[in-house]
Amino acid sequence: MRSFVYSSHPSRVLFGAGTVRQLPYEVDRLGGSRVLVLGRGDTGEAVWKRLGALGVAQFPDAAMHTPVEVTERALAMLAEYGIDCLVSVGGGTSTGLGKAIAIRTGLPHLAVPTTYAGSEVTPVLGETIGGEKTTRTAPGILPETVVYDVELTLGLPVPVSVASGVNAMAHAVEALYSPDANPVIDGFALQAIAAMAGALPRIAEDPSDVDAREEALRAGWLAGTCLAGVGMGLHHKLCHVLGGTFNLPHAQTHTAILPHAMAYNAPAAPDAMRSIAEALGTGDAPTGVYDLIAALDGPTSLGALGMPEAELPRAALLALTSATRSPYPNPREITLSGVEGLLRDAWSGRRPERPADAGPDLGRLTRQVVDSFAGSPNPRVGALLADLVRHLHDFVRSNDVTEEEWLYAIDFLTRTGQISSPKRQEFVLLSDTLGVSSVVDALTNSRTPQTTPSAVLGPFYVSGPPKAEPGADISAGLPGTPLWVDVRVEDPSGKPVAGAVVDVWQSNEDGFYDVQLPELTGPALRARFEADAEGRIRFWSILPSEYPIPGDGPVGQLLDAVGRHPYRAPHLHFMIMAYGYRRLVTQLFVSGGAYLDSDTVFGVKDDLIVDFAPGRGPAPAGREVDGPWHRLEYTFRIAPA
Ligand code: BEZ
Ligand code: FE
């Protein structure tokens, strides 16, 4: 049992695209009517415009590490303009200034973050006073409202996106080995790491990729929530010391330090490292993070950021003494030589040592394959293949698939191809029995909810079936209980679709389709009808029965191997085509029939289960029937194209 304490911080968060349009309402909600905008550039302008008459002054001079002199200049504007609300827009620098003013004045603060720093959801303020960075935490520091607008992040340059994204990853990484770690924050942290690692390469490839930007912004928020929720460790301490004392750029310092801080802590935090490696899809967390940063051309060397080599011992000592003054949690004991070694590695930018037992380095391999699709002339093809490869690699890795198992899988697919022919579609069967056809079908259906649900096509459709007249008998004399089918085709408003072409096909009494019966010379139990002026088609057939899908091929072996039965619930197939409408492929299932709950291709939908009621009175279409017969009545609704 894992006991824990979890504290959440009260802020109101709006997330989306175009959310800045709601700023006037949000300012009003905070009781503001005279806003000071802390921000500059295009994003500052965008917010200024949206505020309209609510914006009374702009302060564009926020500076990194929030020097108090700058805060004092901004404070001087408050009285001059009668400011009653702060809106900060930008990265951690603008948010920091907003916090510094808010905690001194009690003014409400609405943050519009345009990077992934996450500061907007923390009650923590870092300021520089006389060259040294100090940090304090208070509820009044937390912005009341955060408006995340993905559109404002599209222009964030790739290098800044990478540095800021890794900064966010650092919050999530250190949260996982924090002594106050808890399952809620763990969940946020792992989601943030996986999402950021997935989004940054896509942003580097196409900075205007809205989906990738959305993922990164959400990851930044989650990671910020981790930072707010639990104590950070050595990595954050080092970044503060280096930023405050040596004036290194904050986010870039994170990219250079993080892999080495992780390598330092790895022996003392094996569980966290395993989870991080898993989220990154690699065998080893520190090298996984390093490789990600290197692949994105992010800074990996403190030296390249301007840190003098001769200052490394002083930096190590400062980190240690500052740690003694304000202790911070770290899984591994901090020693002077340890920190100095870590800083030397980070200064040189070398890749951390990969532990011998880390397993193969698959992250790089996967990335190489994924990158190989980047030039695809059809971007959809490239994106689908890239994602397929990610999932396949992950499947092989997480299941530790052996060579023998993989060769078996290849042989299985080879046999699936070899047994396939125009009349035997084993790949369709495979897709159906794995439920993939039904997943695709469910997605398709969800786009036209007002129409009749579709159902899988199955392997027994033969195109161009024989045309039949209204009232015809399609059973070709095969034995079975007679069934009168009387169905209508309508559009969503209930208007008949006259002239719709309706193909029907079904199995015989023993569960076989005509194409499975070598003794038959022509088509049976399949036909094409044309709907009349009322959208109706009518014909005689026989009651369908449950049947096993073909079991003499690889798919049959697969079902046997897992102890699954091969049966489909009894049904009739319909394919409905009409000019100006979407084609509908569906099935009607016999209410009360066998296997409705365990159809082997997962094809049954409640709306498609229909009463095949016993027939009463004279049989339709002038037919003489000896004994019982049934009737099926149904109305199909098809969607406009
Ligand atoms: C069918 O209903 O004809 C069918 C559908 C999927 C797999 C096998 C058969
Ligand atoms: Fe069928």
Automatic annotation (TrEMBL):
Keyword field: Dioxygenase, Iron, Metal-binding, Oxidoreductase
Domain of life: Bacteria
Alcohol dehydrogenase iron-type/glycerol dehydrogenase GldA domain span: 10-149
Annotated ranges, domain Fe-containing alcohol dehydrogenase-like C-terminal: 162-347
InterPro entries per record: ADH_Fe/GldA, ADH_Fe_C, Catechol_dOase_N, Intradiol_dOase_C, Intradiol_dOase_core, Intradiol_RC_Dioxygenase, MAR
Cofactor(s) annotated in UniProt: Fe(3+)
Domain Catechol dioxygenase N-terminal residues, every copy: 378-450
Residue intervals of the Intradiol ring-cleavage dioxygenases domain: 458-612
Record's protein name: Alcohol dehydrogenase
Native organism taxonomy: Bacteria, Bacillati, Actinomycetota, Actinomycetes, Micromonosporales
